[in-house]
Design brief:
The complex is a heterodimer of chains A (522) and B (376).
Chain A: E1 9-18, E2 21-31, E3 36-41, H1 47-54, E4 62-67, E5 70-72, H2 77-82, E6 85-88, H3 100-105, E7 111-112, E8 115-116, H4 118-132, H5 149-162, E9 167-171, H6 179-194, E10 198-203, H7 206-212, E11 215-220, E12 223-229, H8 235-243, E13 261-271, E14 277-287, E15 291-295, H9 302-310, E16 317-322, E17 325-326, H10 332-337, E18 340-343, H11 347-351, H12 358-362, E19 373-374, E20 377-378, H13 380-393, H14 410-422, E21 428-432, H15 440-455, E22 459-464, H16 467-473, E23 476-481, E24 484-489, H17 496-503
Helix pairs in contact in A: 13-14
Chain B: H1 3-20, H2 24-48, H3 53-65, H4 68-93, H5 101-119, H6 130-159, H7 163-186, H8 217-236, H9 238-248, H10 250-255, H11 260-287, H12 299-309, H13 317-337, H14 342-368
Helix pairs in contact in B: 1-14, 2-3, 2-14, 3-4, 3-13, 4-8, 4-11, 4-12, 4-13, 5-6, 5-7, 5-11, 5-12, 6-7, 6-11, 8-9, 12-13, 13-14
Classes of the chains: A alpha/beta (522), B mainly alpha (376).
Subcellular location (chain B): Cell membrane
InterPro entries (chain B): ABC_transp_permease (IPR001851)
Main location (chain B): membrane
Chain lengths: 522, 376
């Protein structure tokens, strides 16, 4: 029988090695029943590995897992799900063109005499939604692709609950949400724990961990540095535990004098592959020595806009100019050669070739740079030196230029891409989510590099879904909503809450905006 | 998990890890051992079918390398397979599946033939004329093969037509049209077979080392030179990096400034040019005239297996082409000399290919599953 006083999950001495790399070094973690336990740490600290051990994806080399006081071992996620553990991945595991109902019951369809009993499924889902205040049951017959990310996340949670999860692992659940949606998520998390369920909450964001969790365990270099009471700690203490030294939170260096206009976007409209208008008549300009931030919930046209600027996509209307020269018709390669560097949002697919070594990846987007070839042939020696320089300067780990890109953790991949794109001496830098998935220590460094480059006169266009990043770095912030720039604001003059409202398509004071197109957004 | 199951898993892990880490030399040794093992098992099957196994195996080996003339025949087949194999490998490395090498080969050989037949009467009937004729034939073969490869490339890039389907269909079209033209316009008066007239005597490659009428060491030289050039382009040039990157991960290639559409067309053109060169070599070195393409050996299809066995690595195409050439020569020799059903010969050859390919297959499978340890 289940012992109600035993912890929901008890990980003891978990050690997981990959070859010579120790990803988890005898980590202990105790998740009390009905509580929220945050796990924080830098990239490569071992958070994901630890959760994959708990979820049955990895076999630990040493250590034990106990669920409700009973020792267990999982060969696959199937076993973990059977033991009442559910995982909400950062990238949702939903089938886009299937309905909410189909997604929730997928693989666990209730059946009577071999036929799917849809009514029974509906009843159970409605019960779950009523208990925790989800509105998912209103969308049961809607295809996933028509729903916002916030709702999709709720669908994921309901799916886990439907499968009987008592313990939920939430892997960076706030990364794709607006501030308002984050609040909604925290309410849901509270309702779940009030009902006796237990949550593990993985995050990079210290304030969220302190706000939402009961206990916080900090991982560093594969070891658990300690577990603290969320109510009795401070951001500085957590940051010190994570990084192993003091971290400066505010590096404010705004106030340089921008120079000439370097990049101009004039009346640009972009359609995506399906012919949908993703960017609608956007005009903006960035001066030398200036950072223009673009804030917005992901999927509101930011990606398509920067693809039109960097030459990945052809706009339907409008012009893009570099230093006053129309480059709308230039190929992507010509734009690279003309000094536009681009940190892409999709590092797995675009930013790196996963099967290539870091040396080979150092050449990506540098193929036609004179520095790396002597006439006919590539100079792999010099390319290798360049990879070493990036690895050193941007603290990419492991420090092995022959390692394949896919063997690196997400944050280290990101650091390598940022390093490669920044070290080309661009005149314009377009960066999408440059610090996504990157640890605090490295965020600090990347931000510092952005500020250095601004001081050197580079024009920087920064797209980020992290409001604190946009607020901290930008000289001006443009907010995008449904393909249009709804407002351009001075970051010193606006709060994160006001930005959040603008991003959600409302006016700064929270009132509904007039229908798009009828007011003069400039 | 029970202890026994854990033991099996960790053993499998160790074996897989060992295989994933195998060096080039070890792979060659593995291939040789695999060939020997397959021959052994093949011998058992032959014996069980009531034939003389020792004679079978010795004939297979003798047919490939037993005397100078057999060796020449093997190298001739190998040269063709290496050239066509590289043509396939170039396209596969770029992620484009050119199944139309046979058709590009046929068209290339036909273009070379036309060049020789129409230009020869214009030149003095002396051996010196061979040089401009061979140069012309080579250029025409490259152009025709390249154009015939570019066609499905353009259709894929700009109209979204699947290249596997278009290239297969273009193979039939090439053979059919060339046969028609040959039969209708190039067959000498009164000849029964649909063959062109013979090329002038002086057009051909000198035998040099081997005194074979249909093999010259220069032909092997052309094949090896092509391999080296392709290898250098792929490994050492920006264009090669663009091409290989397109095959690995197209979005990353596009990000780095590659125009995916133009890359597809260029890749297919280069692949077709190499296939066309193979066609010229076939017409000039082996035939000395041109004939009904439907009767040609299917080098362009066998090349797919050669390239896959070589993991689409141009340098790997050399040993793979030699193996296939040797098996082809040995198998044909058995067909001439022994009273063994051809199905049995093909079966044993298939067994050898399977055994040689198996380690590569396991290696590929091991990289997909996480056997051999989680490779983070």
């Amino acid at each position: 029988m289940t012992d109600t006083t035993a912890p929901a999950v008890q990980l003891t001495d978990i050690t997981k090695r990959f070859g010579d790399v120790v990803a988890n070094d005898s980590v202990d973690l105790t998740l009390d029943r009905g509580s929220i336990h945050a796990v924080i740490g830098e990239n490569g600290a071992g958070k994901t590995t630890l959760m994959n051990v708990l979820y049955g994806l990895y076999d630990p080399n040493e250590g034990t897992i106990a669920i409700d006081g009973e020792p267990r071992s999982f060969d696959s996620p199937r076993d973990a799900i059977a033991a009442g553990i559910g995982m909400i991945h950062q990238h949702f595991q939903l089938v886009d063109n299937m309905t909410v109902l189909q997604n929730i019951v997928l693989g666990h369809e209730p059946s009577t005499r071999g036929l799917v009993d849809e009514q029974a499924a509906r009843r159970r889902i409605t019960d779950i939604c009523d208990t925790y205040g989800f509105s998912v049951d209103e969308h049961l017959d809607t295809p996933i692709e028509e729903l916002g990310l916030g709702i999709q996340q709720h669908v994921e949670i309901v799916k886990s609950l439907y499968r009987g999860a008592d313990t939920l692992i939430l892997d960076e659940p706030t990364a794709v949400l607006t501030p308002q949606e984050v609040e909604g998520l925290f309410d849901v998390m509270e309702a779940l724990t009030a009902d006796g369920r237990s949550l593990i909450f993985i995050t990079h964001k210290l304030d969220e961990a302190m706000h939402a969790a009961d206990d916080i365990t900090v991982l560093r270099d594969g070891s658990a540095v300690g577990t603290v009471d969320a109510a009795a700690t401070s951001q500085n203490e957590l940051a010190r535990m994570m990084v192993g030294r003091e971290v400066l939170f505010d590096v404010d260096s705004r106030g340089g004098t921008p120079g000439e206009v370097a990049l101009t976007v004039d009346g640009v409209t972009v359609r995506d592959e399906r012919g949908l208008e993703q960017v609608r008549d956007v005009s903006l300009s960035v001066r030398e020595g200036e950072i223009l931030g673009i804030a917005g919930v992901e999927g509101n046209g930011q990606q398509e806009l920067i693809e039109a600027i960097t030459g990945m996509r052809t706009p339907e209307r409008g012009t893009v100019s570099l230093q006053g020269r129309d480059i709308t018709e230039l190929s992507r390669r010509r734009r690279i050669e003309d000094g536009i560097s681009y940190v892409p949002g999709d590092r797995l697919e675009e930013g790196l070739v996963q099967d290539y070594s870091l040396v080979r990846n150092a050449l990506l987007s540098n193929q036609t740079m004179d520095a790396f070839s002597d006439g006919l042939f590539l100079d792999w020696g010099r390319i290798g030196d360049h990879a070493d320089e990036i690895i050193d300067a941007y603290d990419v780990r492991p420090r092995n230029p022959e390692a394949t890109a896919k063997s690196l953790s997400g944050g280290n991949q990101q650091k390598f891409i940022v390093g490669r794109e920044l070290e080309r001496d661009p005149s314009v830098l377009v960066a999408a989510h440059p610090t996504r998935g990157v640890d605090i220590g490295s965020i600090e460094f990347i931000h510092q590099r952005f500020q250095d480059m601004r001081a050197e006169g580079v024009a920087i266009l920064l797209v980020s879904s992290k409001l604190d990043e946009v607020q901290k770095l930008s000289d001006r912030t443009a907010v995008m909503y449904e393909g249009s720039v709804v407002d351009t604001v001075d970051p010193d003059d606006v709060t994160e809450e006001e930005l959040g409202l603008l991003m959600a398509g409302r006016a700064r004071d929270g009132t509904e905006r007039a229908a798009r197109g009828t007011e003069g957004d400039a | 998990m029970s202890d026994a199951a854990t033991g099996v898993r960790s053993l499998a892990d160790r074996i897989a890890a060992r295989m994933l880490d195998a060096s080039v030399l070890e792979r060659v040794v593995i291939a040789l051992v695999a060939t020997a093992l397959a021959l052994l098992i093949g011998a058992v099957i032959v014996a069980a079918s009531g034939y003389d196994a020792v004679e079978f195996v010795s004939s297979l080996v003798y047919g490939a390398v037993g005397n100078v003339s057999n060796l020449a025949f093997m190298l001739r087949q190998s040269s063709m397979l290496i050239l066509t194999g590289v043509a396939v490998a170039v396209a596969f490395r770029a992620g484009v599946f050119n199944i139309g090498v046979q058709g590009q080969f046929v068209v290339g050989g036909f273009a070379a033939t036309l060049g020789i037949l129409f230009a020869a009467p214009l030149l003095p009937n002396s051996p010196v004329s061979a040089i401009p004729l061979l140069a012309l034939a080579t250029l025409l073969a490259l152009a025709a093969g390249g154009a015939y490869g570019a066609l499905p490339g353009v259709m894929k890039a700009y109209a979204g037509a699947n290249e596997v389907i278009t290239t297969i269909m273009l193979n039939f079209i090439a053979s059919g049209v060339v046969y028609f033209l040959l039969d209708a316009y190039l067959r000498p008066e009164g000849a029964a077979a649909p063959n062109t007239e013979q090329f002038p005597d002086y057009v051909g490659l000198p035998g040099l080392v081997f005194e074979s009428p249909s093999f010259s060491i220069l032909g092997l030289g052309v094949a090896l030179l092509t391999v080296v050039v392709v290898y250098l382009v792929m490994d050492r040039t920006g264009f090669g990096y663009d091409l290989v990157t397109s095959g690995y991960q197209e979005p990353a290639a596009k990000y780095s400034g590659v125009d995916p559409k133009r890359m597809i067309v260029r890749t297919m053109t280069i692949s077709g040019m190499i296939a066309g060169l193979a066609g010229a070599l076939f017409a000039i070195m082996i035939l000395g005239y041109y004939s009904d393409p439907n009767t040609f050996p299917t080098f362009g299809f066998d090349a797919i297996a050669v390239s896959l066995l070589a993991a689409n690595n141009p340098l790997g195409v050399i040993p793979a082409g030699l193996l296939f050439g040797g098996l082809d020569a040995g198998g044909q020799y058995i067909g001439f000399t022994l009273d063994v059903p051809s199905e049995l010969v093909d079966g044993v050859i298939g067994l050898i290919v399977l055994f040689v390919a198996a380690p590569e297959l396991f290696r590929a499978a091991g990289q997909y599953t996480s056997l051999g340890g989680d490779r983070e």
